[in-house]
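agent> step 3/5: call structure_predict on target 'TIGR01244 family phosphatase' (Erythrobacter insulae).
agent> reason: downstream docking stage needs a structural representation; sequence fetched in step 2, passing through unchanged.
tool.input:
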Amino acid sequence: MDIRSVNAGLSVAPQIQPDEMASVAERGFVAIICNRPDGEEAGQPRIDEMRDAAQAAGLAFHHIPVAGGAFPDSAISAFRAVRRGTQGPVLAYCRTGTRSITLETLANPDGIDPSERIKQAAAAGYDLTAISEALH
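tool.output (status=ok):
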């Protein structure tokens, strides 16, 4: 698994597999956020498989899908609510991790300065300078 720490409350990853959920829990995560639409590509584990595996490992599971480079306010608000409402580290994933880090950066659940959010993303290996104008 390619898990990249963003801050104390969140790490992001490319697609994880159902059989990796126990390892995710062992690493101290308490919740998973999936940012992929179900059936986005062939071979992708189904959402129900991921949810069942997460719950079997003792992890909360949240599905907040986004696609096509669109980040609707409803998805940003839902991501923020999960992050603020979860006591412990969260692992968010999508196909590459980019949608997950973008949602974290737009949601700003920790209320940090826009430049710091861009720096956190860069430190995790994601260049989000293209959205810097949208941050407030």
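agent> step 4/5: record observation. The radius of gyration is 14 Å.
agent> proceeding.
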